[in-house]
Amino acid sequence: MRYGAYSEEVLKKLHWMNDVLGTSLADALAVSNGIDMRALIAEALHMGDEGHNRNKAGSLIYLKLLAPLIAKTTKDSAAMAEVMQFIGDNALSVLNPVMAACKAMTDAAHGVEGSTIVTTMARNGTDFGIRVSGLGEKQWFTAPAEIPVGLFFSGFSQADANPDIGDSAITETAGIGGFAMATAPAIVTFVGGTPKDAMNATLEMYEITFTESKFFTMPSLDFRGTPTGIDLRKVVELGITPRINTGIAHKNAGVGQVGAGLVRPPLKLFEDALLAFAEKYNI
User: Fold this and answer.
1) CA 198: distance to chain centroid?
2) Which end of the chain has fewer CB atoms < 10 Å from its terminal CB, N or C?
3) Hey, is 118 helix, strand or coil?
């Protein structure tokens, strides 16, 4: 339903999410101290998630934390059961809170004078855009989005794929998702490739990042921190662009998601941003 499908069934579910699910979650969180999303993500990475397209463990942790609160605040037993089942049945339930947490993390790194760290990556099905910490709040760099390559639902193929779409690449911007594939070898059953490919994807991302996360670690790499802080200079110098795990939308409006796979932003984004950086700082 977030990939362009708008059938009567989808619209009905969206209204339910707004009126029932949203109200239930708001009431539950109002009687809590909130959910520590950074701790949740860290634990999920140790349980086989990468935080973007594979969130099975994180969604179950999310349900575990929410269930007592929902039971305490949702008076309608039928609605309570419906809400809990919806969260439990959806392996991506936690993705939206994870994205919000990643956005908060990356926003904290934005606006640092002289910083070449990429703090936003986003795409809208037509263009891909990035922002850089040291280049101000409003300056975006855009280029045509690439078409993801991956695995498709029955009846669909690569010929049906739309250019990359969505704001979930904020997970990779924060150092998880495609950057943490080494800790989630089973992700390849959803996006394609082999477990060795997943390991190599993470190792490659260390080449273009500034540091390693203190909070998000990977057992398969001896608890090494995930590659974090995409550095504009390294991307351009090495010609290596970030890896992103992504859903694939159909190129025709109304169909919705037809698969999942891997994509990279165009190198031109980073080249243009580096030129702007050099001009601003007289390098």
Assistant:
1) 16
2) C
3) strand
Neighbour-count burial of 29, counting CB atoms closer than 10 A to its CB (0-12 exposed, 13-18 middle, 19+ buried): middle
Ranges of CATH 3.90.1700.10 domains, the chain = 111-280
Which element (helix H / strand E) includes 210? strand 209-218
The continuous run of DSSP H or E covering 67 comes out as helix 56-73
Which CATH superfamily does the domain covering 8-98 fall into? Enterococcus faecalis V583 domain (3.90.1710.10)
238 vs 180: CA distance, rounded Å:
20
Q: 130: how many CB neighbours lie within 10 A of its CB?
A: 28
pTM exceeding the 0.90 threshold for the entire prediction = yes
Class of domain 111-280: alpha beta
pLDDT digits (tens, 9 = 90+) for 30-89: 999 999 999 999 999 999 999 999 999 999 999 999 999 999 999 999 999 999 999 999
Tokens 């994807």 belong to: 201
User: Torsion angle of alpha carbons 193, 241, 245, 130, nearest 10°?
Assistant: -170
- Quote the CA–CA distance of 75 and 94 in Å, as a whole number: 23
